[in-house]
Amino acid sequence: MPVARPEPQEPRVIAHLDLDCFYVQVEQRRNPALRGQPTAVVQYNDWKGGGLIAVSYEARKFGVKRSMRGDEAKNVCPGINLVQVPVSRDKADLNVYRNAGSEVVAILSTKGKCERASIDEVYLDLTDAAKEMHLESPPESSESIFEEATKSNILDLPSDVGDREENVKAWLCRADANYQDKLLACGAILVAQLRVKVLEETQFTCSAGIAHNKMLAKLVSGMHKPAQQTVVPSSSVQDFLASLPVKKMKQLGGKLGSSLQDDLGVETVGDLLGFTEEKLQEYYGVNTGTWLWKTARGISGEEVEDRLLPKSHVCGKTFPGPKALKNNSSVKSWLDKLCEELSERIQSDLSCNKRVAQTLTLHARASKVLCVIYSCLLVSAY
């Protein structure tokens, strides 16, 4: 269950950066002829053309969705390019995407504490860099503002009145803004600079959210895609959360969110404001109740972990329906292949990052109800 963390005493500047349809971008860099074309990346599974794992914005205009399979996508968009993920040992090999993501992380981590959340998303704590900019070259005293920053989307700033970019520039340069917003303005400029640098050095676009905590930054990073960024001033938080469906919140998409809907009639995050902290604790316990009370107010003390590398390496393979393994020799053959891949990745990690794996876990599922998990310590041979 969610646990509330202490709120920081000082204002922070946190960014969440999400690479736009990343798998497609990687394939477009490998094959530039795909740029500007409706494209999708498909899984290593030829049933009905394979499941789509990434869809370009050009393909989305035709109605192609990630929930489709390749054959269905072709019916919707006959001209679509379907690119299969690379294959190794009869299964998908995602190394090309992992390595491309590492290129981006290397750039982003130059400006602050960096947490690699997944293969295509990163959290950044830009607080120190924003404070330094505010002291040395605050936006309100600068002769010019980095152009990409003036294209930011600022919550609660009208986008249909006057010159939008001039309005954003005026917001970034407000001399009468409070300290929190001045730091956010510096953060917006820093993120814009980083996004341009990522594009120049890797050819990848990314979208971003900039706020005072991870929760809000993550919520808005996907609001304006592709290749855009959104800023959340403190004054906009309550109105933003008021109409946000409760299931959109991290950790509220499952049973807890369903309980809020069914037991308390909560449909939006704003609905939680109708309950005292004590009442929420009564329903869900002290920790979760406090977390819900803070979440409704946009409060989150979760810190950005300084983590550039994944916590673990995972190798797996699914055998649906008729492809289910039927004998011990087939199981052994696949275990050998998975162990070979895992061994290679562990050895590479050791060589590049000087880390030694500590624990091995085997997870096997034979049906919806039959699942086994075994773990053991690894004996180092290095």
From TrEMBL:
Gene3D superfamilies per record: 3.30.70.270, 3.40.1170.60, 5' to 3' exonuclease, C-terminal subdomain (1.10.150.20), DNA polymerase, Y-family, little finger domain (3.30.1490.100)
Enzyme Commission (EC) number: 2.7.7.7
Keyword flag DNA repair: yes
Class of enzymatic activity (EC top level): transferase
Entry keywords, A to Z: DNA damage, DNA repair, Magnesium, Metal-binding, Nucleotidyltransferase, Nucleus, Transferase
Location of the protein in the cell: Nucleus
Entries under InterPro entries matching the protein: DNA/RNA_pol_sf, DNA_pol_Y-fam_lit_finger_sf, DNA_pol_Y-fam_little_finger, DNA_polymerase_eta, Rev_trsase/Diguanyl_cyclase, UmuC
Cofactor(s) required, per the database record: Mg(2+); Mn(2+)
Gene Ontology MF terms in the entry: damaged DNA binding; DNA-directed DNA polymerase activity; metal ion binding
Pfam families in the record: IMS, IMS_C, POLH-Rev1_HhH
Catalytically driven reaction(s): DNA(n) + a 2'-deoxyribonucleoside 5'-triphosphate = DNA(n+1) + diphosphate
SUPFAM superfamilies named among the record's database cross-references: DNA/RNA polymerases, Lesion bypass DNA polymerase (Y-family), little finger domain
GO biological process per UniProt: DNA repair; error-prone translesion synthesis; response to UV
Residue intervals of the UmuC domain: 14-253
GO cellular component terms attached to this protein's record: nucleus; replication fork; site of double-strand break
Domain of life: Eukaryota
Similarity comment: Belongs to the DNA polymerase type-Y family.
Protein name: DNA polymerase eta
Organism whose genome encodes this protein: Triticum turgidum subsp. durum (Durum wheat)
